[in-house]
Fold this sequence. Notes:
Mean pLDDT: 83
CATH superfamily of the largest domain: Ribonuclease Inhibitor
Oligomer: single chain
Strand content: 35-45%
Amino acid sequence: MNIGKQKIRWGIAAFIMVCLSFAAKVPAGEWINGAYQMEEAPALEYEADYDTYLNGSETVYFKFKTLQAEGVYMLTFDAGWPQENAYTAVPNLRADVYDNYKRQVKGCVIADGKRGSFSKYIGLSLSELDPDQEYYLKLTHAPSTEFHRYDGTELNAQLYFIPFQGPRNVSLSYDAQGNPVLWWSCDNAYNTYSSLTSYDYFQVEASVSPDFAEYDIYAVDGDAAASSFTDKNPKSSKMYYRVVGCQYFYYPKDKSKKTLMQKASAVVSTEEVKKGFTYTVNDMNYKVTDDRADGMGTVTLTGTRKSKSDKNFKSLKIGAAVKIYGRSYRITAIGKKAFGNYKKLTSVSIGSNVETIGKESFSGCTGIKSVTIGKGTKKIQGKAFYNCKKLSKIKIKSQALSSVGSGAFKNIHKKAVIRVPSAKLNLYKGLFGSRTGYRKTMKLKRM
């Protein structure tokens, strides 16, 4: 019984060996998408003409090796075909570049269904090739079948290396509104085929992913020695940016013909906003209470970097939202003692998204004369405006106010006027009792 099983095992092993032996004899180029032809292709030399004749549905290959120096590689093509016969097929020519792993990295159409003449030089700019690596050029011809006769296509290809550097010294900062600002310089730009000393223009590419699978493009003038760009529409809490310097390639034999070439900078990214962390924007401190990517995140205004003795800090305007690293957050609360004892303040305006004015948030601000409270406020907590002795004008736009804390308006001006929405006058009278600091000498009026 054991002998029988052993014979079966031997038979299976022999079968596998035969299959492996047969598979080893199959040429790789016959089944790995032109890999064999790529490896055996002739080498392209720089600035040399390569003429080939594509007859029928034909594909030809070349290979080339990049240099170690920084720059841009440019492939140019000049195609033509016999015109004697009126029924010449429409040429459809394509060029594709593959890396050493046989992955396509770039491609372009040389001629797409056009008879007669077309632009003399078609260019393929290869700005992101790795140094000292082999690459492959695949030229494909697929003639149209709408004509009765095909006469072939003549194709000339040339490979150039242009020592063209990318933008330098890329850095990221933020403006007073919290928008990300990119800075870069182009003082080392050069192009051996033109007299330009700077880029024709820049394009800033902004992406939510580090691999730039998708990105938005913004064009920036390139005539200065340095430049900047502000992104006012970030799509995520963490954005990735790269700067692409763009110049025109002047064909050495015909400088009136130019093809765009590009070189990208290093990638920089914004910092990531985190819940519970405090960030400073335009001297104001904001604590993130809800971090969301759709612009509906929330923050609490916890205070300011400004000094209490700052004579210029007289007016405080709290907006509906703030941008942190370019991302918008709704300001929904003013924190406890956020601006307590800022005696130089004379006026305060509170944004429409602020729901809660925290305890003692403006307590001791003896210089405040007027306060405007936005449409979204629901709670004014205890001693929020305690001892604001000059506070005489209070405007409450909110129709959602549900509570006023103990001592919220204690020791304000004895003849203060509080204006509220007309429809809420009677209801709000119940909120402003003596415990809030409201006195008989004060008035509650309609707006």
